[in-house]
């Protein structure tokens, strides 16, 4: 039978005694018991009907020590800090710079002894400068550039300069005007633009280092310089003319590179042919001279025989270029001879016939040589004939 059924009696499980009050527990009783337990921990006695016990309302030394220890631990734990990879921690002791810490967990003496300021050193800041200024040749040009920088030294950035960003902006304005004022218009508007940007970057960094701003210039991007709007058309024509000049010069250079090697090759070939002709002429002259000296030696030994041989050789050379065929027929020989004259005329070298040992004609070969100036042996024959 359930405790709350009729006739079951008072079996309330939340009741401390049979037949007691069936209401909720007394909250005042619960609070009182909790206070008694806390009072026992900190040395408080249980109150009696006559008044407070000895030591009531005062904490024990043990409790005070525990509380102080907890407070010290909490104070020490408050000195733990973590520096992110893109940050640097600047530690100050009583407001004076002490150290700069890198990424990772660190500990410093908690407040009010030391404080830490975290500075993001990887963040890139950008400033843009646009202005019209005079060049060295007294022309007006519009220049626009962007300067990007980041923090290099966190301590210098915080303590050495009051406003590093303003210092960077002022340094950019000063350097740009000085650099453009020392350059000519054509140099700024054409191939010198990149060199001008490099010069501006170096000079800005020099000023930032002098003022100890803790900043480093990462890049300077210079847009193409433009002339004032009033004279833009004239400048465009001048630029177009300059581009046409460069294009024509490139074409001329390409043509020169194409023609010169061929000309050098022809010149080298002509020189080689001339040297070969020279060597050939010298060799032929030396050969003719040696041949003439050899004939002269034989002529001195046997003039008649040598003279006859030279005469026959000369006649062979003369007759070989002639279109006639000579036959030497002995007396009593066969005078009827069939010769294929047309075929003999076509053959090279041409042939002539002479009588053989048995009375028959045998062909003899005579080499055909081109006409040329009589050789020294022929002149010897002529002199010999005149002597006779």
Automatic annotation (TrEMBL):
Q: Where is the composition biased (Polar residues)?
A: 347-367
Q: Where is the composition biased (Gly residues)?
A: 1-10
- Family annotation (InterPro entries): Band7/mec-2_domain, Band_7, Band_7/SPFH_dom_sf, HflK, Membrane_HflK_N, Stomatin_HflK_fam
Q: Where is the Band domain?
A: 78-239
| GO function terms (MF aspect) | peptidase activity
From the Swiss-Prot or TrEMBL record, state where the protein is found. Membrane
Q: Which residues form a coiled coil?
A: 231-258
Q: Name one GO biological process term.
A: proteolysis
What family is reported?
Belongs to the band 7/mec-2 family. HflK subfamily.
NCBIfam families annotated for this entry?
hflK
Quaternary structure note: HflC and HflK may interact to form a multimeric complex.
Q: What does this protein do?
A: HflC and HflK could encode or regulate a protease.
Protein name per Swiss-Prot or TrEMBL: Protein HflK
Q: Which organism is it from?
A: Thiorhodococcus fuscus
Query: Encoded by which gene?
Result: hflK
């Amino acid at each position: 039978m359930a405790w709350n059924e009729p006739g079951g009696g008072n079996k309330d499980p939340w009741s401390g005694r049979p037949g007691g009050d069936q209401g909720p527990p007394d909250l005042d009783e619960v609070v009182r018991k909790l206070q008694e337990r806390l009072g026992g921990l900190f040395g408080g006695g249980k109150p009696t009907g006559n008044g407070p016990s000895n030591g009531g309302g005062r904490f024990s030394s043990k409790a005070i020590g525990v509380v102080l220890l907890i407070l010290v631990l909490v104070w020490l734990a408050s000195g733990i800090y973590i520096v992110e990879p893109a940050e640097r921690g600047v530690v100050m002791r009583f407001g004076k710079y002490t150290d700069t810490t890198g990424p990772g967990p660190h500990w410093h003496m908690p407040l009010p002894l030391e404080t830490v300021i975290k500075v993001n050193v990887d963040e890139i800041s950008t400033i843009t400068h646009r202005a019209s200024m005079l060049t060295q040749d007294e022309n007006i040009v519009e220049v626009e550039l962007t300067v990007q920088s980041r923090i290099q030294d966190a301590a210098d950035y915080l303590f050495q300069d009051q406003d590093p960003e303003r210092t960077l902006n002022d340094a950019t304005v000063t350097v740009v005007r000085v650099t453009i004022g020392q350059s000519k218009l054509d140099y700024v508007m054409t191939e010198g633009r990149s060199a001008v940007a490099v010069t501006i970057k170096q000079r800005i960094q020099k000023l930032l280092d002098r003022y100890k701003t803790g900043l480093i210039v990462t890049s300077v991007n210079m847009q193409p310089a433009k002339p004032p709007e009033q004279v833009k058309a004239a400048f465009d024509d001048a630029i177009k003319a300059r581009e046409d000049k460069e294009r024509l010069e490139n074409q001329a250079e390409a043509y020169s590179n194409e023609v010169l090697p061929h000309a050098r090759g022809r010149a080298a070939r002509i020189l080689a042919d001339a040297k070969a002709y020279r060597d050939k002429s010298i060799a032929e002259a030396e050969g003719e001279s040696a041949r003439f000296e050899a004939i002269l030696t034989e002529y001195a030994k046997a003039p008649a025989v040598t003279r006859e041989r030279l005469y026959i050789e000369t006649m062979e050379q003369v007759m070989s270029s002639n279109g006639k065929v000579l036959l030497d027929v002995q007396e009593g020989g066969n005078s009827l001879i069939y010769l294929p004259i047309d075929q003999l005329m076509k053959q090279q070298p041409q042939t002539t016939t002479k009588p053989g040992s048995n009375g028959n004609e045998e062909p003899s070969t005579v080499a055909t040589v081109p006409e040329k100036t009589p050789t020294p042996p022929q002149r010897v024959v002529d002199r010999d004939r005149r002597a006779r």
